[in-house]
Write a structure and sequence with these properties.
It is a single chain. This protein is about 35% helix and about 20% strand. It has about 170 residues and is of the alpha/beta class. Helix 3 packs parallel to helix 4 and helix 4 packs across helix 5.
C-alpha cells in the first residue's frame, strides 16, 4: 500500500492537539475511566462528562461525537474498542469498526483533521502490533475514497508504539 501524506505520526499527549477532533478510546458508559479516556475527561473539564451523560453510552465498535470543551480540539469522537480475549471473539473486526465509525462520523460533521490514540492497546490488552496495523489499514481504506480529510494523526504514548505505526506504514 502506498503511503498517504495525510497520515501523520506523533508521540505525545493527544489532549494538547489543536485539531478538529481527537478520538477517545472510551468505555461503553462514556463517563470517563483510565488511560487516555481519563486524560481526555480531565483535560476537557466537567462539561464533557455532562455532555457524555446525555449520550446514553456507546456500543463496542461504534462512535459518538461531543464538543471538545476545554480541549484545544473542537470535538471529541468517543469510540469503544474491544477488550482482547485471545482473538477468537471478533476483536479485530470490532477494532476496525472503531476506526471506520470514527472517520465516517468525522466526515459527516465536516471535520478535516482527526487524531487517534492506539485504541484498545492499554487496559483492554489488544496486541499493539496488530492494533497499529488495523488502524493503518482502515485509515488507508477510508482515505482511498475520501477527499475531505486533510490530516489523520496517530498519536503514540511511547516510542515503541510509534515504531509499530512506522512499521505498519512501511516507514521503517
Amino acid at each position: 500500500m502506498a503511503y498517504d501524506p495525510r497520515i501523520e505520526l506523533m508521540t505525545g499527549d493527544i489532549t494538547e492537539l489543536a485539531v478538529d477532533a481527537i478520538v477517545n478510546a472510551a468505555n461503553s458508559s462514556l463517563l470517563g475511566g483510565g488511560g487516555v479516556d481519563g486524560a481526555i475527561h480531565r483535560a476537557a473539564g466537567p462539561g464533557l462528562l455532562a455532555e457524555c451523560r446525555r449520550l446514553g453510552g456507546c456500543k463496542t465498535g461504534e462512535a459518538k461525537l461531543t464538543a471538545g470543551h476545554r480541549l484545544p480540539a473542537r470535538h471529541v469522537i468517543h469510540t469503544v474498542g474491544p477488550v482482547w480475549r485471545g482473538g477468537g471473539h471478533n476483536e479485530e473486526a470490532l477494532l476496525a469498526r472503531c476506526y471506520r465509525a470514527s472517520l465516517e462520523l468525522a466526515k459527516a460533521h465536516g471535520l478535516r483533521s482527526v487524531a487517534f490514540p492506539a485504541i484498545s492497546t492499554g487496559a483492554y490488552g489488544f496486541p499493539r502490533q496488530r492494533a497499529c496495523a488495523i488502524a493503518v489499514d482502515e485509515t488507508h481504506r477510508f482515505l482511498q475514497t475520501d477527499e475531505t480529510m486533510e490530516r489523520v494523526i496517530f498519536v503514540s504514548f511511547d516510542a515503541e508504539t510509534d515504531a509499530l505505526y512506522r512499521r505498519a506504514l512501511g516507514l521503517d
